[in-house]
Hints:
The chain is an alpha/beta fold. Helices cover 25% and strands 19% of the residues. The strands form 2 sheets. Strands 6-7-8-3-9-10-12-11 form an 8-stranded mixed sheet, sandwiched between helices. Strands 2-1-4-5 form a 4-stranded antiparallel sheet, with helices on one face. The chain is globular and about 70 Å long.
Amino acid sequence: MSGPLLTVENLTKHYPLGAGFLKKPVSVVRAVEDVSFSVEAGETLCIVGESGCGKSTVARLLMRLVKPTGGRVLINGTDIAGLNNRELRAWRRRMQMVFQDPYSSLNPRLTAGQIITEPVENFERTSRKQRQALAADLLQKVGMSSEMMQRLPSGLSGGQRQRLGIARALSLNPSLIVLDEAVSALDVSVQAQILNLLVDLQQQMGIAFVFISHDLGVVEHIGHRVAVMYLGRIVELATCEALFAKPVHPYTEVLIAAAPVPDPTRVRLAVPMEGEVPSPINPPSGCAFHPRCPLAVECCRIEVPPLVPMADGRVVACHVRAPATGTPARPTAAGNDSLGPVVMSEPLSPDRGSRVHR
C-alpha cells in the first residue's frame, strides 16, 4: 500500500481537572494540542523536548492506550483513534511499544520465554514447541542466548531486560514500534548496544520507529527526522542533518545549545532564555514560547503560529523566523533575529542508521 505507514492529523489530548457545578471540569490540562506528522515504513521519527512537553502522551495516543480528545491516527489509512475496543484488537498486532523502565515494564512472575510469547498467545493458538522456538529465535535476534528463556526478569541486567522488552515487541512482527525513552535508564555502553540493535533490526525487518528521547546525542545517531515539541505542540520538524546543522526555531536552538559537548576544547555559546516552562493548565496566548523568547514580537503574544514549510523541506512554527506571510517580523529584542551563533560539535554520524560507538 502506497503512502505513509503512520499519519497523525491534528492530534489533541485534554485532561479535565476537578468538577464544578453540574460536574463540569474546573480546568483542563492541554497535554497535546493539534499535533500532525507522518512516518514512512522503515523510517525513524524522533520526538524531542523538555519534560512535560507532551512526548509520552503522544506515544500513548499512537498506541491508543488513551483516547484522543480530537484528531486522527491513521495506520495504513485506517483511523484507529475512532475504533472501539473490539475493532482495535486486530490492529494491536501492527504496533507495539517499548517502555522507558526495563524493570517495571516486565511481569516479574513470568520467565523470559513466557514474556516474549505472551502477546502471541493473545492472538493465536500455538503449541509449546512453537512458542519455545519463537522465543529462542527472538532472543537470538536481540543478542541474547536461548538459555535465558527460563530466567525471571530479576535474574537479568538492565540492558538484558530492555533487550527482552524489544524481543517482546517483535513477537507479533509489527510494522511500527513506539519507543518511549527506551535507553534513558541504561548505562552509556548499554545504550550504544541497544541503539545498534535497533538500527540492525530496522535494516533487517523494515520496521518504522517513533523514538521519544530527551538525549539529542542519541537522536542524532538514530533518527531520520526530528519533531521538536514545546508545551504540547510541534514547533519544528526537519531531517536530522538539517535540524542539527541549522536549527530555525528559537526553542530548537536552545535545546541544541544546552546539549553537552564531549570535546572539552570545543566551545558552545550560550543561548539566552529566561523563565520557566508555562503550565499546560493555563498556557500563554499566542505562541507558547513567547514569554521565554528574546525574539518575541506583538503577534507572538496574540496569534498561534502555524507550521510553515521552508525551502529545505522542514516545517517551523515561528512568527519571526518562519512567518506565514513570507516577510520576517521585526523582533522587539535588541539586535537582529538571531539568538547568536550556536557553536556545535561535528555531526556524530553522517548517515542515519550507522552504528554507535561509545
